Amino acid sequence: MREYIKETVAKRIAGDIVMASGHGSAMRKWREAFNATQHDVAKIMGVTPSVVSDYEKNKRAPGVRFLKRFVSALMAIDEERGWPTVKRLAKAMGLGQIAILDMMDFSSPAVIDDLVRAVEGAPINSRFGRSVVYGYTVIDSYQAITSMRGNEFWQLMGTTTTRALIFTKVRTGRSPMIAVRVAPVKPAAVVLHGPSSVDPLAILLADTEGIPLILSAAESEEILISSLRRTFSGVTV
User: Fold this and answer.
1) 3-class DSSP assignment, residue 231
2) pLDDT per residue over 182-196, tens digit each?
3) Residue 57 in contact with residue 20, Cβ under 8 Å?
4) 72-76: long-range pairs with CB below 8 Å, 24+
């Protein structure tokens, strides 16, 4: 189960509870959706079942910390069972795109220089200034080309278009930049992972679109993703 899928599902659940007119009813709805008892949830949270019951009956209003622990308990219960509920919810939310290897949204902006360091990268065009990103998406470029349709490009953008698109398994960078060129929305930056050199056309397209283009020297996709998560873990939503 990819981290971004678990995180996105958890955020959607928490958001639904926060926005509900009756927080307790929403908490009960999600607990039952995960086929968990009050005792199951209370045990993981380190409280008594009566405490969970009080919240579900709206006798108490959940704060941010309690809500986070509640949702984390649901996720932990589902993990023990092999993620059946999260997988179902992810499919319903359209999160099953195999081309997406990882995704993260930030609550505060990160400067491009931080992104360059995280991907062990080097700028390869002239479109650099004081640009910022509010998230990133790591994309398997081969899977994107062979499996994604044009209208699915929006899935790469998460909750904001001010993000970096990081393409792996890249040979020259021409195909990813052509895809960006014809896409209806543009990212704040593009990172290419894989090529030893970049096609001049890719650089020209990046300059034409005004997009910073970065070449990553990370040893592998796993190291790339691990470095990104380690670098930006403190600025997530």
Assistant:
1) helix
2) 888 889 999 999 988
3) no
4) 72/10, 72/44, 73/36, 73/40, 73/41, 73/44, 73/45, 74/13, 74/30, 74/31, 74/34, 74/36, 74/41, 75/6, 75/9, 75/10, 76/44
pLDDT, tens digit, for every residue of 127-173? 776 689 999 999 998 888 776 666 666 667 766 779 999 999 999 99
Alpha carbon distance 174, 182 (integer Å): 13
Pick the CATH number of 3-92 from 1.10.260.40, 3.90.550.10, 1.10.730.10, 1.10.10.60: 1.10.260.40
Q: Give pTM, 2 decimals.
A: 0.71
64-80 helix and 3-19 helix, angle to the nearest 10 degrees? 130
Q: Tell me which residue of 88, 81, 82, 80 sits closest to 13, measured CA to CA.
A: 88
Phi/psi at 133 (5° precision): -130, 150
Domain 100-235 sits in CATH at: 3.40.1390.20
Amino acid of residue 6: K
